[in-house]
Design brief:
Blueprint: E1 2-9, E2 12-13, E3 17-18, E4 28-35, E5 39-46, E6 60-61, E7 72-76, E8 82-90, E9 93-100
Antiparallel strand pairs: 1-9, 2-8, 3-8, 4-7, 4-9, 5-6, 5-8
């Protein structure tokens, strides 16, 4: 199992977290923890090739983690290419911890 932790502070786009879809059994669990003040955040995913510089990825909001300002958990049961967290308002920090199902690299 692989664990990835990324944070975003204030209004900003977080780091793009690539997801390897080579496992027969796909699954990602995530939890977001808010700290250091108020922040509104959204977890997003893309299906686009994030390694192709000719493509600007189209980002979709996660259906359970959009426009939130409190701790939240969720999951991705079906394959996506990458995930990120964005801060949309405030000055606090939102930290996402993602656990990838076996076979993810």
């Amino acid at each position: 199992m692989r664990r990835v932790v990324q944070s975003v502070t204030g209004v900003a786009n977080g780091v793009t977290i690539p997801v390897t879809n080579e496992s027969i059994s796909f699954g990602i669990g995530f939890g977001v923890v808010v700290s250091g003040g108020a922040i509104t955040y959204t977890v997003q995913h893309t299906f686009d090739d994030i390694y192709n510089p000719a493509i600007t990825p189209t980002w979709f909001n996660n259906s359970t983690a959009t426009g939130l300002s409190a701790n939240q958990d969720g999951n991705y049961a079906f394959p996506v290419a990458a995930v990120r967290i964005i801060g949309t308002a405030g000055t606090g920090t939102a930290t996402i911890t993602m656990l990838f199902n076996g076979g993810q690299s």
